[in-house]
Specification:
single chain, globular, 11 strands, binds FE2/S2 (inorganic) cluster, disordered C terminus, TIM Barrel, binds S-adenosylmethionine, alpha/beta, 3-stranded parallel beta sheet
Amino acid sequence: MAETQSLSYLCGLADKLEKSQNLSDDELHSVLLCDNPDFIHYLSEKARTVREKIYGKDVFIRGLIEFTNYCKNNCKYCGIRCGNKNAERYRLSEKEIISCCDTGYELGFRTFVLQGGEDTYFTDDRIVSIIRKIKSRYPDTAITLSIGEKDKESFRSFFEAGADRYLLRHETADKEHYNMLHPSDMSFEHRMQCLYDLREIGFQVGCGMMIGSPYQTTESLIKDLRFLQKFKPEMVGTGPFIPHRDTEFAAFPPGSAEMTVRLISIIRLILPDVLLPATTALGTIDPSGREKGLKAGANVVMPNLSPTAVRNKYSLYDNKICTGDESAECIRCITSRVSQTGYRVAVSRGDHIRYGNSVLTQ
Ligand code: SAM
Ligand code: FES
């Protein structure tokens, strides 16, 4: 059993991960399940060292603009899925989105993340127009899109308009598990194909999974890690699953902060230069979750830039934090949390190191 394995054996596994040596499934089991606190500390210190070697003490900030909570999909875990008749729907106008960017730029953000449900109102032309407006106003910023699955030509038009990055969590690399989390009109293969299309077009690509989602097994997590090793994304978004009262998963327990932080460390070791956020969901299940994530290998935080009036309507899961504060308050709070970890917020686009623009401007 993993629990009875010696500390030196376990630390040897972390060393192997760092050296990009392949771990067997049994070894990955041990890394994921063992509850030896000395090992968990060793893993996290190792991840922190690797992150500092590559990105120093900088933490990159992304201004998150949740611009629509309309969605045509019905993901079983998600509070804004189309089947939730209790969700109060909203979408921001182009003018409102630009105004969020104005506020964000003033506050030091050099990456804007446009996130939303798969809202058919936002046609490719509308998205392209928004990208062009932001880029012409703020040419020194990066745009990340997180607007779900599209066809390759749509992705290409967004890239040509100036979008730099695309976040599309794969949610789980285990097909059977994927089918338990999604309705039958959604396809594991299509989601994966989108990731390969985005990569081919030239985006910095982000995938990722929820930790502790219903029916997730250690085997599913091992498949996730193997997929990450193979796909080598530039970004990985991992947060705990948190139930939403209006979903069929309402009674499932949330994922744990401890497991999420452990995964952050493992991912840092297998993908040393990855951009890895300490997510709002992690801060929701544990008040100091984001700080723990940063100390264990994460190097990105994503404060909210959405107008306060709509924040609580972008309700993916229950008790989401940061829904009441103005953007200026959010960045103040995050800056202070970051500095408590010994790191500093960087005013820069914060690109992946292979894309070369991660230069500090202050
Ligand atoms: N529609 C886009 C997409 O599909 O990628 C972006 C929006 S979607 C709400 C963003 C992410 O929220 C999902 O990829 C999922 O991992 C996460 N999410 C949704 N419901 C969640 C829940 N109940 N707990 C934690 N994370 C959740
Ligand atoms: Fe579409 Fe969640 S079901 S954003």
